Give the backbone structure.
Amino acid sequence: MSFKDVLIALTTYPQPTPPSAVDDAVDLAAALGPKVSAIACEVKINVPGSLLGRRFLNVPGMIAGEAKKSATHAQQLLAAFQAAAEKSGVFQERILEQCLTSEVPEVLVEYSRLRDLTIVPMPERDYLDQWYAESVIFGSGRPTVIVPHERKRSGSFALDTVIVAWDFSRAATRAMADAMPILEKAKRVCVLTVTKEKAIDTRRSGAELAKHLARHGADVVLDEVDAKGRSIGDVFEAHVTYRNADLLVMGAYGHSRLREFVLGGATKSMLTRPPSPIFMSH
């Protein structure tokens, strides 16, 4: 199995995905080998406002101006994506949608369900982009790669070192299985098990996973790291730096409550401040 059909989700409002992040997303997709499409939504802003506000602040004019800004960003982003994808030989399709700001997550989820993988460029500590990413991760049923806007490494994306965060859970197992096409391509796969953070109730864990991955041709290294009182997110971030990893593979933990996502500690930390591209499955 390999990824054949990948989607990049681009943000148009209020702050557009920067051109450098578009290039990074295309670069990552090209390293995986498939054809890639991108989607951007022209958003319509729906602000009820008071009659007084509409009279003195020209709310309709302000809304129209913001919608025009989003439409301009959408065209610019899709053009930048197409140029980068054609240069890398991976261009497939550009998709332009129109919807309310509140409908963007639903649109992204619907398109993501029809793709092998969705790539979401994301800045640090941005609520809106995190909301979009969470929606795709937990709603699409397909794997998602989060690509930080501020890239920590220079040069083209490579699959030299991939870390698999492993705790023998269902979510970690799903992520590992979904990422298998990547793990088979990687030069080295580091299986990271964090100790003294939570109990792993089995003896058939890291070593058995290493055997399984080796049967897929992966060169596996077992890394067992003591949490030493640190949060799981801090351990992951430190290990990505230590191994100079190109990608972190991990299960996404969370559930929806009153249309808001209640995230596990590691998932929340990685989405808030991704230290590298992160492959997530739920």
About this structure: Confidence is low (pLDDT under 50) at residues 257-261. Residues 172 and 251 are 4 Å apart (CA to CA). Residues 59-88 form the longest helix (30 residues). The chain is about 40% helix and 25% strand.
